[in-house]
Amino acid sequence: TTANIQSSPSSTTSQKAKSQRPVYRGAIHCLRHTIETRGFLSLYQGISSPLLGSMAENAVLFLSYGEVKRMLGEKPGEKELTLLQLASAG
């Protein structure tokens, strides 16, 4: 999710510069023009879909990790798994 937020402005600028080649002289010109005409937040246009995808992916990963640990015999507050068991769970 942090990677999505950090890479969104460069991704947006890159796509605009490539698709509208005669309008922009390069990536920096595209970035400056976009911020001046549409505002800074327009660089994050379309970020909701990747963020929702990342959240769903992480939810599945954490749930499956917890379930595999439970199936390997972990009991909260009682028995801890060995390093090998934890490695095989995740």
- Total strands: the figure is 0
**Could you report the average pLDDT, rounded to the nearest whole number?**
81
Proportion in β-strands = under 5%
Low-confidence stretches: none
- State the shape: rod-shaped
Structural class label: mainly alpha
Order of helices and strands: HHHH
Q: Count of helices? A: 4
Verbal overview:
The structure is a single chain. With 90 residues, the protein is mostly helical. The chain has four helices and no strands. The protein starts with a helix and ends with a helix. The model has no long low-confidence stretch (mean pLDDT 81).
Question: Layout of SSEs?
Answer:
Elements (H helix, E strand, L loop, with lengths): L1 H18 L7 H12 L9 H24 L11 H7 L1
Key descriptive features of the protein:
single chain, 90 residues, mainly alpha, 4 helices, 68% helix, rod-shaped
What is the structure about, briefly put?
With 90 residues, the chain is mainly α. The protein is built from four helices and no strands. The two termini are 20 Å apart.
